[in-house]
Amino acid sequence: VLSKIQNICFPKKYEDRIDVNFCTDNLEIFDSASTYAEAESINLKANAGKNTIKTFNYSPDPETSLLIHKISNATQKLKLVNTQL
User: In terms of pTM, does the model score above 0.70?
Assistant: First the structure.
């Protein structure tokens, strides 16, 4: 999977889009299909307030399919703080 995501081309149109308001600038993401485990989560810094989440399915080959979420704010990009995966 890591070699496949090195060359992702983000689409001009996304399958889904939603605006959200973050109450804090500290976010934690995890695979919602699994039981939550802190060691398998990723911590991010984001701007509190209005953000846009855009989603698309990325399938570079028949054996790889990923649901990609792009989170953006008009003034600043997210910063990866801690990866434990």
Answer: no
